[in-house]
Amino acid sequence: MKASIPARANSFDEALARERCRRYRRRILDISQQVSALHIGSAYSCTEIVDCMYHALIRNNANGSPRDTFLMSKGHGCMIQYVILEELGILSRADLDAYCTPNGRLGVHPDYGSPGIVAATGSLGHGLSMACGMALAEKGRKTGNVIYTVLSDGEVQEGSTWEAVMMASSLRCDNLVAAVDNNDFQSLGRTSETHPSFYPLLDKFRAFGWEAVEVDGHDSRAIFEAVTEREGSRPFMLVAKTTKGKGVSYMENVPIWHYRSPNKDEYSRAVEELEAAR
Ligand SMILES: Cc1ncc(C[n+]2csc(CCOP(=O)(O)OP(=O)(O)O)c2C)c(N)n1
Ligand SMILES: [Mg+2]
After folding, report:
1. CATH topology of domain 14-276
2. Counting atoms of ligand 1 from 1, which one is nearest the CA of 259?
3. Taking the complete model, does pTM exceed 0.85, yes or no?
């Protein structure tokens, strides 16, 4: 049985996705010059995943409001969500310009009540439980609406994540689509070095009754196809192999870029690389 819930788009335009992701990385880079820390590497790691969810998977109601829900479980990576919400007109340019300022409404982690934000996250390990509850509520109301969420490999090490993994399949939340941004970094250390028993990850989700598929998390088409071609009778986990800091060579797999903002020289080098990627 194929998934009963179709994606928004039946075909996927890779060139458009690539250009959007380049643009989002550039916008995040520019905002990084306003503040000393904004988890740039974390946002770059899941850019293609979040872009695909917003632009190709989440469906809208007739009035243009979103029908499906996106929840950023790895809250510290929220810059990618903020810049997409800005482009969609849900957040304003002024909102992003006031990021992390005393009078601004956007902080380092997403706050419930900000436009487009459905849950306060950032305390890692809680997002999947909330997404599971939301999926269950949609099922109870028979809406057919889907809940999308993105987790980090660091937060999959939290015990609470595994409680949610168990509950989602016990409660048959087939309208729950999650992705792990599997970048092999947990703050300043490699997950594979600090937690070798974390792997193989795919088998663990399957053992808990989930449908789980592994993809290259920077291949937008692969992400789109894996989700839309899911079997669809169980909760779905995309284990996305990613690179922390993806898109700017000196940031890739270099732990300090988990949160640091580039200085002027580093900023110029990053601009050059992102412009060359047009
Ligand atoms: C419960 C909890 N413990 C610790 C932290 C501090 N913290 C912020 S990010 C992070 C880990 C970052 O690695 P990962 O979760 O894999 O995210 P990514 O690599 O995608 O940035 C930690 C430990 C937190 N936010 N929440
Ligand atoms: Mg990580």
Report:
1. Rossmann fold (3.40.50)
2. 21
3. yes
